């Protein structure tokens, strides 16, 4: 069986005695690129007003942040290596326009989640995310 040069990576195989080609579709799942991607619920109390913030990351690309038990913002996130990109979609503190998306470096240090700003035009989001180490909440 001849292989078309433009499809050289395809490998002929046999199914039930008949030749064929196996095709695979690989789908990238946002938030699941790294086995140690942050997932779960994280908490922090901000300095100044002492507000209790809770951030939930579902591990597959959705986040939600509450302030003192009330919805602040929810949206999607995407992880690529050590960077996380938040996109606000709903909630009273959601950002729009150029400030809708913010990118940060992240790292887990034991049960603490830490952020370092890469690019974000939203002052509120950066103030909260950079206010200190976020503690992993035990379920």
Please, could you describe this protein's structure?
The structure is a single chain. By secondary structure, this protein is mostly beta strands. It has a domain at 40-136: Lipocalin, CATH 2.40.128.370. 5% of the residues lie in helices and 47% in strands. The protein has one helix at 123-129; strands at residues 12-15, 18-21, 40-45, 52-57, 62-67, 70-80, 83-90, 101-109, 112-120, 134-136. The strands form two sheets. The chain has an eight-stranded antiparallel barrel.
Properties at a glance:
10 strands, Lipocalin, eight-stranded antiparallel barrel
Strand order of the largest sheet: 3-4-5-6-7-8-9-10
Q: Would you state the CATH class of the domain at 40-136?
A: Mainly Beta
Query: How many DSSP-defined strands?
Result: 10
Distance between the termini: 57 Å
What is the C-alpha radius of gyration, as a whole number of Å?
21 Å
Q: What's the CATH topology label of the domain at 40-136?
A: Lipocalin
Total DSSP helices: 1
Helix-and-strand structural type? mainly beta
* Helical residues, percent: under 10%
Which outline best applies?
Answer: globular
Query: If you average the pLDDT, what whole number results?
Result: 82
Major sheet summary line: 8 strands, antiparallel, barrel
CATH arch. level architecture of the domain at 40-136 = Beta Barrel
Order of helices and strands: EEEEEEEEEHE
Unreliable segments (pLDDT under 50, ≥5 consecutive)? Answer: 7-11, 20-34
Strand content: over 45%
